[in-house]
Specification:
Number of helices: 9
Strand content: 15-25%
EC number: 2.1.1.198
Catalytic activity: cytidine(1402) in 16S rRNA + S-adenosyl-L-methionine = 2'-O-methylcytidine(1402) in 16S rRNA + S-adenosyl-L-homocysteine + H(+)
Domain Tetrapyrrole methylase: 4-203
Function: Catalyzes the 2'-O-methylation of the ribose of cytidine 1402 (C1402) in 16S rRNA.
Keywords: Cytoplasm, Methyltransferase, rRNA processing, S-adenosyl-L-methionine, Transferase
């Protein structure tokens, strides 16, 4: 019998969002993998979880996955957690899951905290269809992605860091229009949770004079059908000129 790989969501800020099942799985696992053991230490201590913990992050996941697969094939159960939220959602986890499935190892993801769901629901934008983009490319391909998403009619969800928020809003105004509606949430589930809604220009103006602290989730209204046609023609003309 092989072991099982569990993906265990952890709170994105409020410890009360930890589930009973998540605590049980972490206590029963033969090994816990953490994105940053120092970040996870307070959480594990709070819930009196004393299992072995090893680091599994973007810089070592390819190398460590080989050893973890061997561990699972020996019949040991492994639980993966990230610094906050659900593993593999803009966090390490995807590569390990794919490797485990190659060896027919059972993988189970527990339901739990993730930042984009409350941000989406709070935004007031349509939730029946949405497009999760996570972090946009930092440099190469960034403008191209903006142009590709300019005609997306579904609600867009992006993650952004504090030091890039204003620049991203400025770029949104350039590629998607200053009047596009946006909802920006920060410090979700924490004491200073805040959601700011309005046009791209209005939200940028607000954050120019307010604290840029915490991780940000940006929900952007989908492009209107008329705007889609205009954008398609504009970017097609740009390509023809090139």
């Amino acid at each position: 019998m092989t072991g099982k790989l569990y993906l265990v969501p952890t709170p994105i800020g409020n410890l009360e969002d930890m589930t009973f099942r998540a605590i049980r799985i972490l206590k029963e696992a033969d090994l816990i993998l953490a994105e940053d053991t120092r970040t996870s230490a307070p959480l594990l201590k709070h819930f009196e979880i004393q299992n072995k913990v090893f680091a599994h992050h973007q810089h070592n996941e390819h190398q460590s996955s080989n050893e973890i697969i061997k561990f699972l094939l020996m019949g040991q159960n492994v639980a993966l957690i990230s610094d906050a939220g659900t593993p593999a959602i803009s966090d390490p986890g995807f590569f390990l899951v794919r490797e485990a499935l190659k060896f027919n190892i059972a993988v189970e993801c527990l339901p739990g905290a993730t930042a984009f769901v409350p941000a989406l629901v709070n935004s007031g934008f349509p939730t029946d269809k949405f497009c999760f983009e996570g972090f946009l490319p930092l440099k190469k391909g960034r403008q191209t992605r903006y142009k590709q998403l300019a005609t997306e009619e579904r609600t867009l969800i992006l993650y952004e860091s504090p030091h890039r928020l204003l620049k991203t809003l400025e770029e949104m105004a350039t590629f998607w229009g200053a009047d596009r509606q946006v909802s920006v949430s920060r410090e979700l589930t924490k004491m200073f949770e805040e959601t700011v809604r309005g046009t791209v220009t209005e939200v940028k103006t607000y954050f120019e004079t307010h604290p840029l602290k915490g991780e940000f989730v940006m929900c952007v209204a989908g492009a209107a059908p008329v705007e889609v046609d205009k954008k398609k023609r504009k970017y097609q003309d740009d390509e023809d000129e090139d």
